[in-house]
């Protein structure tokens, strides 16, 4: 009150109860009694009025709101309220809204002559809930309080019927007042940020229709009531999670995210190939496409913290009786799709199917391992239940007897870790190891056990007879190490066999090598071979040992590679091949080796791999490209990108198309992407294009998606903008355009209008009052024949190929049209054969309207002339009836008047045109 510059709205609640040490308003341990004396009424009213008159005080319907916690304790409350109302009006000229707290059994404000009520949980909401004291383990055997299940409280609160009186609904993040009641408190048990968000979101949704004196308002109990366990303020356990949940509930950000939620299920967090692939797949899905993921692992492992750093991670027990409930809960959260990453995790398949979570099934194992771990039964069942079964090569499919499966998909995995070959790194590593520039180096890698053929690699070293250095990267199986102890000691003492301790810089070691060998007896598709090829190394592998021989045969058609497939377990032939390959490798120039590596990196592109996995997992989501045309919009770039990153469905690519800006637009774009940990592509024009439609054309040629969203840099949107349009499009192949209503704001974000529907109705009547579906010609006739009702390109998405065709067809007009070019493009697009358009009546796009810069009469005349040209084009193209021609004339006359250009000659000219 003493600092008017603190712009914080507030209102008062009168805690009209006894002040006791128990903090419950009782008569026990009384500190100060709450008395009601008639002679105090004037002072009471004056005290309240002092606050109610403040400019920051909260009003509803123009009246300050004054809350009374316990009206039931006021003697003859209805009469007292009448008296106080009169005193407020007479002494201060104000008419407060009196609102009661719903507590201690008093819920109806009409009984006290009050205007409305406010909930004060846990009061009221626990009255219909059962106690769970017997279901929990109590450390205090003398505890005699009341414990309720927070989930049941939330469900009960959200199911409350609408009241006949105005009511402010309230959510409580948690509650536990045992600190004040010493073993006799009331506890809401099991609160989580997620459950609280559901409660608050539900109340906010209800408040949109059940307003309080015309305002949608809800309350939260409380900010920092530590002694009652009710607080939003951050704590050590949850951090800011409850605040973040509040933000999501208030903004709607957390709603409707089901389309982008994906479960990634693996068998453990051991640092091996399949596990690392799952981890990096999750990382890539988030970074490139904005997919919301969660990891479920059947067991833990040393990579568990890495998994948790990427996304929420849980270790689950498939054998648990609660696993179906767990999967069901996840589906309710919006996880409708999953990826099972290995046969070892295939036991999750029946549970997922039972709760209707579709999944794709990646298999990284081969028969020997499957038999040794008794995985065949669960794998075969998972194959039958899966939407798609994915293996990297046809050879693996044959080994697994899956080649005839209808749901089989051959998809070689991508390479998630690439470091280009470096001659400097090669020289440094070889110097550290004491190798000369002419010493051949043969390398193998992996967990050194019999399956990986480590014993065969040791035989290879023996066959080479010191002609090359042999290096194995990776830990060794303890039992095998013990069995090969003498041979290992002899090999190491020779100075040509090397097993460094655990290393992190595998690419550096690969740069130092000349040949990579895979001596595995059985190995599905190890990533380390892809890394070796990306380092420019020739590779050798045993035939019929897994998927790598298929890969090496395929890429051997390229001049960049010299790979060998060796008869199974033939170490003599492997040694001869290694010598031959080393000579070939060392004869190459560094540039030739770099070329080989770059070719492999491009071939094993991990973004492309994860995008294919995503499309198989969520086939209903089309490939969407977002292009942001920008010129000197640094001020708005962060907000625009954030609104795109926040979309509730995956986006294939985001391109910032900068038209020679001289501000720091691109710097802000890159920093915003970094802050969100998202990928963008920045394309910069060295010279300004001079035309927004040239930028559109360039965007269409750059984009690779099925659909394109031209999201202008100064606009923004709601998080479910794309999702709502796609819900309307579904699988109708004739739809070429979808757009939503918009609300408008000025340069500073101040609201101008909540919807464009009043403007639409001036020419289209009720056509755009509700969600609608038109043929292209219907839409042109009804919504584009008089004026352009697609007021902002940011509000629409388009079939990319059809829009490109439309722009190509009207290039001549676009060279001269400056104001009506977008209108011209929409007409061309929607008058093509089999063109349909859908409209979403929600104002999900936010259109920024800048002050009119068209100040010169000449520019305004050009504006009118462009509209006249479009009208002429439409009348010829569609053979418009006379009624449409008259409306077109009236529209141009209206603009003439609005622009101050009216005179007799102009009028005659417009009508004649």
Essential attributes:
913 residues, seven-stranded mixed beta sheet, globular, 18% strand, 40% helix, alpha/beta
List the helices and strands and how they pair.
Layout: E1 12-14, E2 19-20, E3 30-32, H1 41-52, E4 59-60, E5 63-68, H2 77-92, E6 97-102, E7 116-119, E8 146-149, H3 150-158, E9 167-171, E10 175-176, H4 178-181, E11 186-189, H5 193-209, E12 218-220, E13 224-225, E14 230-231, H6 241-251, E15 261-266, H7 273-289, E16 292-297, H8 304-310, E17 313-315, H9 323-332, E18 337-340, H10 349-354, E19 358-362, H11 367-372, H12 376-385, E20 388-391, H13 394-399, E21 408-410, H14 423-433, E22 441-445, H15 454-464, E23 469-473, H16 478-483, H17 485-493, E24 497-498, H18 506-512, E25 515-518, H19 527-534, E26 539-542, H20 548-555, E27 564-566, H21 571-587, H22 590-603, H23 606-617, E28 624-630, H24 634-645, E29 653-658, H25 665-676, E30 681-684, H26 692-702, E31 707-710, E32 716-717, H27 721-729, E33 735-745, E34 751-753, H28 757-764, E35 772-775, H29 776-784, E36 796-799, H30 800-809, H31 811-814, H32 821-830, E37 836-848, H33 857-878, H34 882-899, H35 904-912
Parallel strand pairs: 1-5, 5-6, 6-7, 7-9, 8-11, 9-12, 15-16, 15-18, 16-17, 18-19, 19-20, 20-21, 22-23, 22-25, 23-24, 25-26, 26-27, 28-29, 28-31, 29-30, 33-37
Antiparallel strand pairs: 2-3, 4-5, 10-11, 13-14, 31-36, 32-37, 33-34, 33-36, 35-37
């Amino acid at each position: 009150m003493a600092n008017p510059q603190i712009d914080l709205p507030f209102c008062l609640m009168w805690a009209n109860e006894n002040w006791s040490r128990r903090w419950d308003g009782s008569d026990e341990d009384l500190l100060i009694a709450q008395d009601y004396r008639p002679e105090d009424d004037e002072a009471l009213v004056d005290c309240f009025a002092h606050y109610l008159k403040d400019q920051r005080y909260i009003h509803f319907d123009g009246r300050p709101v004054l809350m009374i916690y316990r009206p039931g304790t006021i003697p003859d409350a209805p009469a007292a309220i009448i008296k106080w109302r009169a005193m407020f009006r007479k002494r201060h000229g104000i008419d407060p809204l009196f609102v009661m707290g719903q507590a201690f059994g008093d819920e109806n404000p009409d009984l006290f002559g009050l205007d409305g009520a406010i909930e004060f949980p846990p009061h009221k909401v626990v009255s219909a809930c059962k106690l769970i004291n017997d279901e929990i383990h109590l450390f205090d055997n003398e505890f005699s309080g009341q414990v309720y299940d927070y989930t049941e409280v939330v469900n009960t609160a959200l199911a409350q019927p609408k009241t006949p009186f105005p009511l402010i609904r309230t959510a409580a993040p948690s509650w536990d007042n045992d600190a004040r009641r010493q073993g006799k408190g009331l506890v809401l048990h099991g609160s989580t940020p997620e459950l609280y968000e559901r409660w608050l979101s539900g109340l906010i949704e209800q408040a949109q229709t059940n307003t309080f004196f015309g305002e949608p308002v809800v309350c939260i109990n409380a900010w920092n009531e530590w002694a009652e366990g009710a607080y939003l303020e951050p704590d050590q356990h949850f951090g800011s999670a409850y605040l973040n949940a509040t933000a999501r509930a208030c903004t709607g950000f957390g709603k409707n995210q089901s389309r982008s939620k994906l479960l990634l299920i693996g068998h453990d967090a051991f640092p091996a190939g399949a596990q690392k692939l799952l981890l990096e797949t999750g990382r890539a899905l988030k970074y490139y496409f904005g997919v919301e993921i969660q990891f479920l692992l059947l067991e833990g492992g040393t990579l568990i913290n890495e998994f948790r750093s990427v996304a929420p991670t849980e270790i689950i027990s498939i054998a648990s009786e609660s696993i179906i409930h767990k999967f069901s809960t996840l589906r309710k959260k919006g996880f409708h799709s999953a990826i099972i990453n290995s046969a070892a995790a295939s036991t999750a398949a029946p549970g997922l199917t039972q709760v209707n979570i579709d999944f794709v099934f990646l298999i990284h194992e081969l028969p020997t391992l499957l038999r040794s771990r008794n995985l065949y039964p669960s794998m075969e069942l998972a194959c039958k239940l899966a939407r798609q079964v994915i293996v990297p090569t046809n050879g693996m499919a044959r080994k697994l007897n899956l080649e005839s499966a209808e749901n089989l998909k051959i998809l070689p995995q991508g390479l998630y870790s690439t470091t280009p070959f470096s001659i400097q790194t090669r020289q440094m590593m070889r110097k550290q190891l004491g190798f000369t520039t002419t010493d051949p180096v043969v390398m193998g890698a992996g967990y050194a056990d019999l399956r990986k053929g480590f014993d065969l690699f040791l035989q290879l070293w023996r066959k080479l007879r010191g002609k090359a250095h042999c290096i194995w990267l990776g830990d060794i199986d303890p039992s095998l190490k013990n069995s090969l102890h003498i041979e290992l000691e002899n090999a190491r003492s020779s100075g040509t066999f090397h097993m460094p301790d655990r290393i992190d810089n595998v690419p550096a070691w690969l740069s130092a090598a000349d040949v990579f060998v895979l001596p595995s007896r059985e190995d599905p598709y190890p990533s380390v071979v892809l890394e070796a090829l990306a380092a420019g190394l020739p590779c050798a592998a045993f035939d019929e040992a897994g998927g790598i021989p298929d890969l090496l045969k395929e890429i051997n058609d390229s001049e960049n590679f010299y790979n060998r497939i060796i008869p199974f377990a033939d170490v003599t032939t492997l040694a001869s091949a290694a010598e031959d390959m080393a000579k070939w490798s060392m004869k190459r120039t560094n540039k030739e080796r770099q070329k080989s590596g770059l070719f492999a990196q491009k071939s094993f592109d991990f973004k492309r791999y994860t995008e294919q996995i995503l499309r198989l997992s969520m086939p209903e989501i089309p490939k969407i490209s977002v292009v942001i045309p920008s010129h000197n919009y640094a001020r708005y770039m962060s907000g625009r990108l954030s609104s795109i990153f926040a979309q509730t469905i995956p986006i294939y690519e985001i391109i910032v198309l900068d038209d020679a800006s001289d501000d720091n637009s691109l710097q802000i774009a890159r920093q915003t992407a970094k802050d969100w940990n998202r990928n963008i592509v920045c394309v910069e024009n060295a010279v300004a294009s001079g035309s927004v439609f040239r930028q559109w054309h360039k965007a269409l040629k750059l984009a690779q998606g099925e659909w394109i969203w031209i999201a202008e840099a100064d606009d923004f949107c709601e998080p479910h903008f794309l999702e709502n349009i796609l819900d309307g499009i579904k699988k109708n192949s004739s739809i070429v355009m979808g757009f939503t209503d918009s609300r408008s704001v000025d340069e500073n974000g101040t609201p101008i209008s909540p919807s464009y529907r009043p403007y639409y109705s001036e020419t289209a009547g009720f056509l755009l009052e509700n969600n609608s579906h038109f043929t292209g010609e219907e839409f042109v006739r009804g919504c584009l024949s008089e004026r352009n009702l697609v007021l902002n390109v940011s509000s629409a998405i388009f079939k990319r190929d059809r829009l490109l065709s439309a722009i190509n067809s009207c290039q001549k007009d676009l060279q001269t049209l400056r104001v009506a070019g977008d209108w011209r493009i929409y007409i061309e697009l929607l008058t093509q054969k089999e063109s349909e358009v859908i409209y979403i009546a929600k104002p999900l796009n936010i259109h920024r309207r800048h002050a009119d810069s068209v100040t010169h009469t000449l520019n305004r005349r050009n504006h009118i002339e462009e509209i006249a040209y479009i009208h002429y084009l439409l009348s010829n193209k569609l053979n418009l009836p006379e009624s449409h021609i008259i409306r077109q004339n009236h529209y141009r006359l209206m603009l003439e008047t609005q622009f101050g250009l009216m005179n007799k000659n102009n009028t005659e000219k417009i009508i004649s045109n």
